[in-house]
């Protein structure tokens, strides 16, 4: 399972599939293709033929937040949906959190399901792994343009996290 922040206003919010039709999605789907989780390296609309194998993409928030800054209230209103997705996807054993917001949201969703979150609460870091209940949570910098254009996140870094998720 791969968890992002929220659908982008001009990407997933417009197309109806998270990470579809925006630059973060271009980065993510190319990496999913390179690591064997996707049948093609791009996604531009819901019916473009993209198929994921062994992966599911979700988000902490359900709507594109104003200025890409969701409020705690918005997060808390949406968390039950993420918690329910995790519950329904019984084969999920690894959750890749794209950024610290997704990391925190995933930990909150797991706690909402009654899963004990380690104390002190694990801190996000790229490549960080932590066992939470029967899951392994893995951190990855979010594939936003501010991370990919500056080199904070490279293709190799993304591929490495996804390859590790496949190993786990």
User: What is the N-to-C order of secondary-structure elements (H for helix, E for strand)?
Assistant: EHHEHEHEEHH
Just give the CATH class.
Alpha Beta
Provide the number of structural domains: 1
Helical proportion?
A: 25-40%
Number of helices: 6
Beta percentage is: 5-15%
What would CATH call the homologous superfamily?
Uracil-DNA glycosylase-like domain
Oligomer: single chain
Structural class: alpha/beta
Low-confidence stretches: none
Descriptive overview:
The protein is of the alpha/beta class. The protein has a single domain (2-167), classed as Uracil-DNA Glycosylase, subunit E. The chain is 38% helix and 12% strand. The chain has helices spanning 12-15, 23-34, 72-88, 100-112, 145-148, 155-167, and strands at residues 2-4, 57-59, 94-98, 129-132, 135-140. The chain has a five-stranded mixed β-sheet, sandwiched between helices. Helix 2 packs across helix 6. The longest helix is centred in the middle third of the chain and has 17 residues, at 72-88. The model has no long low-confidence stretch (mean pLDDT 91).
């Amino acid at each position: 399972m791969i968890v992002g922040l929220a659908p982008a206003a001009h990407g997933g919010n417009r197309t109806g599939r998270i990470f579809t039709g925006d630059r973060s999605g271009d980065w993510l789907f190319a990496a999913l293709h390179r690591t064997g989780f996707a049948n093609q390296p791009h996604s531009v609309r819901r019916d473009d033929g993209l198929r994921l194998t062994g992966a599911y993409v979700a988000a902490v928030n359900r709507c594109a937040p104003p200025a890409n800054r969701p409020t705690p209230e918005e997060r808390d209103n949406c968390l039950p949906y993420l918690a329910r997705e995790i519950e329904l996807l019984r084969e999920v054993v690894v959750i890749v959190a794209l950024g610290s917001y997704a990391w925190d949201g995933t930990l909150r969703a797991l706690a909402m399901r009654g899963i004990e979150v380690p104390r002190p609460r694990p801190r996000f870091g790229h490549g960080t792994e932590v066992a939470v209940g029967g899951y392994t949570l893995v951190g990855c910098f979010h594939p936003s343009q501010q991370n990919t254009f500056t080199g904070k996140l490279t293709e190799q870094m993304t591929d490495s996290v996804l390859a590790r998720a496949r190993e786990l």
